[in-house]
Structure formats: C-alpha cells, structure tokens
Amino acid sequence: MLSRIKSFHTQRFCTTRFGDSMSNFKKSETGLPQGIVINPLLLNTFIGDLPGISSFNGLTNAACFEDDLVVWFCAFKEEHFELNTVLN
To answer: What is the C-alpha separation between 27 and 15, in angstroms, rounded?
Structure first.
C-alpha cells in the first residue's frame, strides 16, 4: 500500500499552458498532485497541526480547509525583511 501511495507522489512532471503557448515539462518536487482521493488525509497528517503552532510574535497565522493551507503575516515595513528571511 505504501509503495502505491509513493508512486503517486514521485517522478511527477508538470507543464503550464497559457493561451496557445505551453511551457517545457518540469519535475514537480513538492506538493501533492490534484485529484487523488487520499491527498486530504496525507496533507492533514503532515500539516494538520500547523495552524495550532504557527505563531511568530503573534503576527503569523495559518488556516487549513480540506486540502488547502494559507499562511499570512501582518507586519510593519521593517518586519518584511525578517519575514522574507524566514520564508526563504
């Protein structure tokens, strides 16, 4: 069963289409592919507790809904540098 799940999440390639143009294929090394039924369970297993622990000076927040995660940060201009450092 684990090898079957792993096969869905490794050696994936993606491309982007905009109008009549299409990008070259690139290997997708992060994230979960769309449309696989088990993805919400896998995502919640790995990041389900993130909204409860994501607090940096009380300014960082996170919320999960089904298989989506959003993280936001409220800061003054001088804190933008610190945020970029943490994200990179």
So the answer is: 9
Q: Distance between CA atoms of 39 and 55, rounded to whole angstroms?
A: 26
Is residue 67 a contact partner of residue 35, using CB atoms and an 8 Å limit?
no
Instruction: Note whether 73 and 83 are within 8 A (CB).
Output: yes
Q: Cα separation of 43 and 68, whole Å?
A: 9
The pLDDT tens digits of the residues spanning 27-39 come to 887 777 777 787 7
C-alpha closest to that of 16 among 30, 28, 31: 28
Q: Which among 38, 68, 67, 70 has a CA at the least distance from the CA of 54?
A: 70
What is the per-residue pLDDT across 1-57, written as a single tens digit (0 to 9) for each? 778 777 777 778 888 899 999 999 998 877 777 777 877 787 778 776 766 665 556
pTM of the model: 0.38
